[in-house]
């Protein structure tokens, strides 16, 4: 098992552009989470999937943010019309069906110029 | 609304001594609490957890204590080792599907 992977690891984009990040969870983990982390802060919950169903969404996830997990395996997080305030580390985590401990990926660092 | 707080941004401890990291929370409905360790340029790594119905859980050098009346959680590391130097986050699970994280405490274990 290779752990949770995220792609890309770094993304630099200009304000107003759309970006999409991908997360591949550990196989057989049915739960998947997205977080945003800024400097000096802990991970901030964005959204949660159980299999392909999006069961929880933070108010932080404005209409510019959308996440999908179409087949209950990998997930994508899209940010439309990026703003400088979107610059952050975006973390993905997955959990097995029988436990609540999360396994985090290395994150995607987004810089909006 | 910051429901989970770690009020000490940093802690320095001598190797071999005990490290105590603290965490306070406001929501008495949290189901589960977890501690994570994070090294630079890596995602957080799970350390230890405790259910809200328990008051202590131990795993090797790591022990987590939960004081529900005080809404307080602590992580004890004994003995501390230089490799324990990292940022530690506490997290709380609400409704079994949403996690709240504290802002982290940077632990430095001096050789």
Could you describe the 3D structure shown?
The complex is a heterodimer of chains A (113) and B (111). Chain A is 0% helix and 50% strand. With 113 residues, chain A is mainly beta. In chain A, the strands form 2 sheets. In chain A, strands 2, 4, 5, 6, 9, 10 and 11 form a 7-stranded mixed sheet that branches. In chain A, a hairpin with a 6-residue loop joins strand 4 and strand 5 (44-50). The mean pLDDT of chain A is 93. Chain B has strands at residues 4-5, 10-14, 19-25, 30-38, 45-51, 56-59, 62-67, 72-77, 86-94, 98-101, 105-110. In chain B, strand 6 and strand 7 (62-67) form a beta hairpin. Helix content of chain B is 0%, strand content 59%. With 111 residues, chain B is an all-beta fold. Chain B has no helices and 11 strands. The chains are: A mainly beta (113), B mainly beta (111).
Biggest chain pair contact, residues each? Answer: A-B, 24 and 26 residues
Question: Can you count the helices of chain A?
Answer: 0
Quote the beta fraction of chain B: over 45%
The rounded Rg of chain B comes to 13 Å
| Overall pLDDT confidence of chain B | 95
Question: Which regions of chain B have little confidence, pLDDT < 50, spanning 5+ residues?
Answer: none
**Helical content of chain B, roughly?**
under 10%
Order of helices and strands of chain A: EEEEEEEEEEE
Structural class call of chain B reads: mainly beta
- Which sheet architecture does the biggest sheet of chain B show? 6 strands, mixed
Biggest sheet layout of chain A:
7 strands, mixed
Q: Gyration radius of chain A, to the nearest Å?
A: 13 Å
Query: Total number of β-strand segments of chain B?
Result: 11
State the helix count of chain B. Answer: 0
Oligomer: heterodimer
Q: How far apart, in Å, are the first and last alpha carbons of chain A? A: 36 Å
Shape of chain B: globular
Strand content of chain A: over 45%
Overall pLDDT of chain A = 93
Task: Give the helix level of chain A as a range of percent.
Answer: under 10%
